[in-house]
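Researcher: Quick test of sequence recovery. Tokens follow.
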């Protein structure tokens, strides 16, 4: 009977392990994030958390399949990408990639088949993940860990540890003070280790970091182990009572198609008019034509996908004719949207050929390319009655594009393109290139010897003012791109602009 009384369940043991690991992650967070900048600290924290996930799942005897390993590999990649590139846009996309990875991991706990996701389930799981993350700490303490079992099983050991600490603490203080008084170097080492420069601001900062890191770790670890605690809150999200019929859908999609058609007819005059029309006195200039409307046309492309998904979700056809009508109107809209996207691409081509590439122009062009791929995927899935496969494909393709951007290094590509324009005797913005991240510095330094001395000196002077190339940061803010650029810069620091 005593053996049964002192028995402790696996759930309590795993809950205690998660609690201890989360407290350690909170302490690690204080050490890693006590810096003014983010860099390798985020990568180390993410990798440490992923390692603990594998350890805890192994202790809980949970199967780790290819789906879990794929999600972990995705998390590792985006965590490493934060240390790989220096571009603010790329780092923001890396955080987005981590969020999408966590979202897919959460979906694995709530949905039996990850690649079959309804649009409504995405919103439902998003709200559920927020609710789950907020309540994870409370549920771990109240439900997952049975404290009576802990008391009955380890109560005597805990009391012994507390008594040992009560006896040991005064002894350590006495011996420590005597040793400090006996040696100056030991005294200095002790005071340096205890000098945390604590004040009200640092205490609040440390406390906030500890709570956030601890809470985040509990939510992630608990979500990978106690799957049933998530599934019990999942309820089917029913469609709204108000549905779209054939007439409403036909009016909506038909009216938008007519609007698109009128826009395309006017746009064709620009396509066939060529440069003579664009540069004519009565017509728009390159700058006005290309710059005006590009972002708006990209937004139109995105909104079309949302409109088609929303109408397909609410549409309730009663016969084959109504189903075919929706498919026909959708195909027409997709074709005209492709033409509008071509108009936007034409505007961007004209603009970049005269004014060069910038980050906004580059990333917007890539985003438009991703939207076109989404249209193709929409045609292959939604219009063929496979709407549940569209969302998963859209998320995966988005994560693929983020990874691809890290590989191709946009800032370096922008720099190469603009240097090529300079060699072709076209206008060149040296000040803009020096405002890019350190991802562009190796390309800039490699091209400096091949440009005119005036442009060379301007770039050299601008780069010389960048603090990131002149000062060493805290190791926790280490970034591979910054380190590489700084090393290249130091190799040429003794050369003046006329000797490069």
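Model:
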């Amino acid at each position: 009977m005593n053996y049964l009384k002192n028995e402790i369940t696996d759930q309590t043991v795993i809950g205690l392990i998660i609690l201890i690991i989360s407290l350690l992650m909170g302490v690690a967070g204080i050490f890693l994030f006590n810096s003014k900048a983010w860099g390798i600290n985020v990568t180390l924290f993410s990798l440490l958390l992923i390692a603990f996930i594998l350890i805890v799942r192994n202790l809980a005897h949970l199967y780790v399949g290819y789906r879990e390993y794929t999600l972990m590999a995705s998390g590792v990649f985006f965590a490493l990408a934060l240390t790989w590139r220096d571009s603010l846009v790329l780092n923001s996309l890396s955080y987005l990639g981590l969020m999408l990875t966590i979202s897919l991991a959460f979906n694995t706990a709530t949905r039996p088949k990850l690649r079959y996701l309804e649009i409504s389930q995405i919103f439902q799981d998003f709200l559920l993940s927020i609710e789950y993350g907020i309540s994870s700490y409370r549920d771990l303490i109240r439900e997952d860990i049975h404290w009576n079992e802990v008391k009955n099983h380890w109560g005597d050991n805990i009391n012994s540890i507390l008594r040992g600490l009560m006896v040991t603490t005064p002894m350590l203080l006495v011996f420590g003070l005597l040793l400090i008084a006996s040696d100056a170097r030991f005294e200095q080492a002790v005071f340096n280790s205890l000098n945390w420069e604590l004040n009200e601001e640092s205490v609040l900062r440390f406390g906030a970091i500890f709570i956030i890191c601890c809470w985040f770790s509990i939510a992630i670890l608990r979500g990978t182990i106690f799957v049933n605690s998530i599934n019990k809150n999942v309820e089917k999200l029913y469609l709204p009572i108000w549905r779209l019929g054939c007439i409403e859908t036909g009016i909506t999609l038909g009216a938008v198609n007519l609007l698109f058609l009128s826009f395309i007819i006017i746009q064709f005059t620009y396509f066939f008019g060529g440069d003579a029309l664009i540069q004519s006195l009565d017509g728009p200039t390159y700058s006005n034509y290309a710059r005006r409307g590009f972002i708006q046309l990209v937004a139109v492309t995105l909104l079309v996908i949302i409109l088609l998904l929303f109408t397909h979700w609410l549409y309730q056809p009663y016969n084959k004719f109504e189903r075919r009508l929706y498919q026909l109107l959708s195909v027409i809209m997709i074709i005209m949207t492709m033409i509008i996207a071509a108009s936007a691409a034409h505007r961007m081509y004209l603009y970049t050929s005269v004014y060069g590439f910038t980050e906004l122009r580059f990333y917007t062009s890539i985003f438009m390319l991703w939207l076109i791929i989404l249209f193709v995927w929409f045609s292959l899935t939604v219009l063929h009655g496979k709407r549940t496969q569209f969302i998963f494909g859209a998320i995966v393709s988005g994560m693929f594009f983020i990874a691809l951007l890290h590989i191709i290094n946009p800032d370096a590509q922008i720099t190469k393109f603009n240097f090529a324009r300079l060699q072709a005797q076209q206008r060149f913005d040296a000040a803009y290139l020096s405002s890019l991240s350190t991802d562009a510095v190796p390309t800039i330094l490699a091209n400096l010897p091949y440009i005119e001395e005036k442009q060379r000196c301007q770039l050299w002077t601008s780069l010389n003012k960048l603090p990131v190339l002149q000062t060493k940061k805290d190791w926790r803010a280490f970034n591979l791109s910054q380190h590489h650029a700084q090393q290249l810069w130091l190799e040429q620091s003794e050369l003046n602009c006329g000797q490069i």
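The longest helix spans residues 147-182.
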